[in-house]
Amino acid sequence: MYKTLLVPLDGSATAQLALDEAAALARLSGARVHLLHIVDAMEHITGFEPPAVHIGDIRPRFLKAGRELLDRAAQALQAQGIASETTLVESAGERVSELIAAHAARIGADLVVLGTHGRRGVERLLIGSDAEQLARIAPVPVLLVRERRTAAG
């Protein structure tokens, strides 16, 4: 079945749902879960801070936050008896979907389990969908996990 599951995390509720789904699959198959967090430095630049402030103060903070996110997820898996590894990647302008696909190939993942926000219509056109792009380019199957909708929603 599955030996290596890749779970990209961004701190969102849907990423947590993906982690929960991956944990369930790992328990069933004995798979190892590889956790990935991608930091896009461009999201943390306003253009007003001097480079020294960005390098000495801002960058270390967002890298630390990414590491803490990965560590919390790894500890939660460990508490369930699931083996895991973590990787923090700093983007140099690449699309998140491309980085995830490349990482899946690099680690020999059997499946990528990804939380998706399920955007539709104009919002999807304006923002784009990394989940949709990943499903198209990934070298392995991609399981998209989204929030369950209520009957009213």
Detailed description of the structure:
48% of the residues lie in helices and 20% in strands. The protein is of the alpha/beta class. It starts with a strand and ends in an 8-residue tail after the last strand.
Features of the shown structure:
153 residues, alpha/beta, 5-stranded parallel β-sheet, 5 helices, 5 strands, 20% strand
Strands, total number: 5
pLDDT averaged residue by residue: 85
> Strand fraction band?
15-25%
Classification by helices and strands: alpha/beta
> Per the principal axes of the C-alpha atoms, what is the gross shape?
globular
Terminal-residue CA separation: 35 Å
Q: SSE string, helix = H, strand = E?
A: EHEHEHEHHE
Strand arrangement, major sheet: 3-2-1-4-5
Estimate the helix proportion, in percent: 40-55%
Query: In DSSP terms, counting alpha (H) and pi (I) runs of 4 or more, how many helices?
Result: 5
Major beta sheet, specifics? 5 strands, parallel
Unreliable stretches (pLDDT < 50, length at least 5) are 121-127
Radius of gyration: 16 Å
